[in-house]
Amino acid sequence: MFLIKKENLKILLFLIPISFIIGIAVTEFFVLLSIIFFIFLNKDQSILKDSKIIFLLLFSFYIFLNSYFQITDRSKDLLLSSLFHFRFVIFSLSIFCFCKIFENSKENIFFLLFIFSLFVLLFDSIFQFFNGANLLGYKILSGRVSSFFEDELILGSFLVRILPIIFWFIFFLRFDLKKNFFYFVFFFSLYFISIYLSGERTSFFLSSILILTIFFVIKRLRRILSYSILIFILFALSTSYYKIGNADLVDRMFVKTFNQMTDNKIVAKKNDNINFENISKNFKIYSSDHEGHLKLAFKLFNENKIFGIGPRGFRYHCRGINYDSDEGVCSTHPHNILIQIVSELGLIGLSFYIFAGIFVLFNFFQLILKKEYEDDYLSFYSITFGLIINLFPFIPGGDFFNNWISIILYYNIGFYLYSYKKCVRK
Fold first, then answer.
1. In this structure, is the dihedral angle defined by the CA atoms of residues 243, 245, 250 and 251, taken in order, positive or negative?
2. Dihedral angle sign, alpha carbons of residues 143, 145, 149, 154
3. Considering the domain boundaries, does residue 315 fall inside one?
4. Closest Cα to residue 164, out of 209, 220, 226, 201?
5. Measured distance CA(117)–CA(148) in Å, rounded
6. Over the chain, what is the mean pLDDT?
7. Is the domain of 70 the same as that of 113?
8. Residue 274's pLDDT band (cuts 50, 70, 90)
9. To pair with 379 at 20 to 30 A between CA atoms, which of 56, 283, 296, 418?
10. What is the CA radius of gyration of the chain?
11. Which residue range(s) make up the domain with 263?
12. Per-residue pLDDT tens digits for 399-426
């Protein structure tokens, strides 16, 4: 009976990402369930001696100490999440162990159900774009498709962060890409279209980087990606040219981005000229608000360069002044992962970030230079891209300490730990 229960735990690998669509409360329940199962069923204590796990635990311990000693009077909703950050490390270990359980069976059925669930999400997103409301009646908000996420505009962010996991499973399960060519082209075409329809510029940029990188690194996906990208481009051009759908994506993704970065407006008349001199003078980092967040973050960093202002200290500071800052622009977070780590965790936190980045990139290029392209290695490359996407430093991003961001990051880390053991330490 014990073995049967343990064998069934692999289903959590698929339930966790799908649960995001239902709601973060359901996701947190599955995360808690994963942690409990790991604690009670895992008998391998040697895993805690792994240098990578020690590194993650040290990082979480530093977050705990930093949060506890820096801001002891902060509100509970800001304090508790930081104090118990180590739970995400245990969660990543549970994913690692579930992958080991899954390895013994490698049943396609759960993955196919996972893909089917995503397909429903993709279909619903496109339906919402054309209809103005999705299958459940949720309407488009601010010209952005959200599908089942309703008023949470995270469709694109969810899809781009889950994409490396899909590639990981494709190679882990040894799918015949030639035999299933048309199915994958159809699925990924809808996938890329839905990311675009979400109107999330960061997600669109990250997905472009991810697809381009995979295109050059993983040759076996090139033909599928080429056809999928072509279909996406045709969709984007035709809906824009004929003004089809209930959202102006070209305006949001490109025109609005240009306007925000230059404090100018692109004019529609052919005879009007864009003043490039003003553009260069008024250039902003992403936008006026984003540049304001960065200014405030650096101001707070200068107050404590070694330890930063504490986890979620940016939000704590802004709450304390009622979001009315005399320098920079207040928000719930700096909207950039690297800047958030620097300002809230200081130079010590930055050293963790840099060391992790060097470690991930070193192992990736080490295997690439050895020209390792078997399925296990392709899974490893895919999940490496997943970590890079989740921690990409040079564009606006979400709150590093936000629960759903942390869950999906450490979910990726769990797969990375498993693939690392199979490929780097064979």
1. positive
2. negative
3. no
4. 209
5. 12
6. 88
7. yes
8. low
9. 56
10. 22
11. 249-286
12. 999 899 999 999 999 999 999 999 987 5
Sorted by sequence, the CB contacts under 8 Å of residue 363 that are 6+ apart come out as 384, 420, 424
Q: Provide the domain count of the chain.
A: 2
Residue indicated by tokens 């015949």: 176
Residues 243 and 253 in one domain: no
414 touches 387 (CB < 8 A): no
The residue whose two tokens read 């002044």 is 321
Residues 153, 271, single domain; the answer is no
Say if 313 falls within a structural domain.
no
240 lies in the same domain as 269: no
Whether 309 maps to a domain, the answer reads: no
pLDDT tens digits for 188-198? 999 999 999 99
Find tokens 């075409």 and name the residue. Answer: 189
Dist. CA 316–CA 328, nearest whole Å: 15
192 with 158, same domain: the answer is yes
For the whole model, what pTM was predicted? 0.92
Task: Assess if residue 325 is contained within a domain.
Answer: no
> Which of 389, 422, 395, 393 is CA-nearest to residue 408?
389
C-beta of residue 169 within 8 angstroms of C-beta of residue 111: yes
Quick: pLDDT tens for 335-361: 999 999 999 999 999 999 999 999 999
Contact, 196 vs 245, CB < 8 A? Answer: no
| Same domain for 262 and 281 | yes
* 138 within 8 A of 128, measured Cβ to Cβ: yes
Q: Report residue 265's pLDDT band, with 50, 70 and 90 as the boundaries.
A: low
Which of helix, strand or coil describes residue 39?
Answer: helix
